[in-house]
Amino acid sequence: MHCTINWLPETGMAFSAETGSGHLLTMDGAPDGGGRNLAPRPMETLLAGAGGCTAYDVVLILKRGRHDVTGCQVKATAERAHEDPKVFTKLHLHFTVRGRALPPVAVERAIALSHEKYCSATVMLGKTAAVTTSFEVLEG
């Protein structure tokens, strides 16, 4: 896996990243740090990546268990240290999983497997942050 990040000096503090799979991502800093708020902050993209990684796991685990999952949303919230480096110190992931006759115990198990075994992002962030999860299951 690789990624190339380039500073876009004409924008102040924005950066473009090209992923190894050929996708482009733009990031920017806060206005008080020289940015112009043109794109997500780098730490926001890290938080989004962690949410995407665990959501992917949960859907895949449920599908492999032959559950009729029709939707998955993760609301990720994080707290950061006050001192540099301002690492995440708390990370909470709330899952809203939708499906037909989806057993809550299966959703709970899928989230636990992602959190404990499969999601590289949350396992890595768990080295500095207390990671907690919650969930709700909706019919449909």
UniProtKB/TrEMBL annotation:
It comes from the Bacteria. InterPro entries: KH_dom-like_a/b (IPR015946), OsmC/Ohr_fam (IPR003718), OsmC/Ohrsf (IPR036102). Gene3D superfamilies: 3.30.300.20. SUPFAM superfamilies: OsmC-like (SSF82784). Pfam families: OsmC. This is OsmC family protein. It comes from Scleromatobacter humisilvae.
